[in-house]
Design goal:
Mean pLDDT: 81
Number of domains: 1
Function: May act as a carbohydrate transporter.
Helix content: 25-40%
Keywords: Disulfide bond, Glycoprotein, Signal
Low-confidence stretches: 129-140
Bound molecules: 2-acetamido-2-deoxy-beta-D-glucopyranose
Number of helices: 5
Number of strands: 8
CATH architecture: Sandwich
Shape: globular
InterPro entries: Cupredoxin (IPR008972), Phytocyanin-like (IPR039391), Phytocyanin_dom (IPR003245)
CATH class: Mainly Beta
Structural class: alpha/beta
Organism: Phaseolus vulgaris
GO cellular component, one term: plasma membrane
Largest sheet: 5 strands, mixed
Distance between the termini: 11 Å
Strand order of the largest sheet: 2-8-7-4-5
């Protein structure tokens, strides 16, 4: 009995935790390729701490480097913070800051560079009513997802103590 509740809770938490992180696929269905304006793509997305950015590309042809602003502006990988080569790279955006990613094989000069601003999470809703009454904005789905996670956590703690 207790065991099956725990399993249900673990599952519920897993699902709602997954729901809180958005995976932003760079370039959407065009992926990570030359001659795409990724500034336009980035301007169309809102990034929050805990989200993922993912790069899809032909493995061995392209790659991904996280660099600083100099690296982004000049297409250089000196002092790169990280690099990825799997062809399907999921990179967690764990800090509220501007991130810079470029392709490290020269294709940065053909536009394979993207910079995104990651925002801190908005404060959790104080009540469902407050969330309902706030004007619709881009944060609303996030608030919903956060309350989903919160209620699962509460529900699970409730069950554990029963
Ligand atoms: C990409 O689009 C942005 C916004 O319209 C523009 O400022 C920028 O010059 C474009 N970049 C390239 C390489 O065309
Ligand atoms: C921006 O988002 C809209 C709606 O999702 C989409 O139709 C459009 O193609 C996007 N533009 C770019 C440059 O990604
Ligand atoms: C970046 O490129 C600019 C213009 O080409 C140059 O003036 C600058 O010195 C470069 N910066 C670095 C750190 O290489
Ligand atoms: C980026 O890193 C390079 C190499 O470590 C360094 O020379 C440069 O000053 C850095 N640029 C910024 C804007 O921090
Ligand atoms: C790529 O990252 C690994 C560590 O994850 C590092 O050892 C390697 O030197 C990096 N490669 C380049 C070209 O920076």
């Amino acid at each position: 009995m207790g065991g099956s509740w725990k399993l249900t809770c673990a599952l519920l938490l897993l699902i709602s935790a997954a729901a809180t992180a958005t995976d932003h696929i760079v370039g959407a269905n065009r992926g990570w390729n030359p001659n795409i304006n990724y500034t336009l793509w980035a301007n169309n997305h809102t990034f929050y701490v805990g989200d993922l950015i993912s790069f899809r590309y032909q493995k061995n042809q392209y790659n991904v480097f996280e660099v600083n602003q100099t690296g982004y502006d000049n297409c250089t990988t000196e002092g790169a913070v990280g690099n990825w080569t799997s062809g399907k790279d999921f990179i967690p955006l764990n800090k509220a800051k501007r991130y810079y990613f470029i392709c490290g094989n020269g294709q940065c000069f053909s536009g394979m560079k993207v910079s995104v601003i990651v925002h801190p999470l908005p404060p959790p809703p104080t009540s469902a009513l407050a969330a309902e009454h706030s004007t619709p904005n881009s944060a609303s789905p996030l608030l919903f997802k956060r309350s989903l996670l919160l209620s699962s956590v509460l529900a699970c703690f409730g069950f554990v103590w029963m």
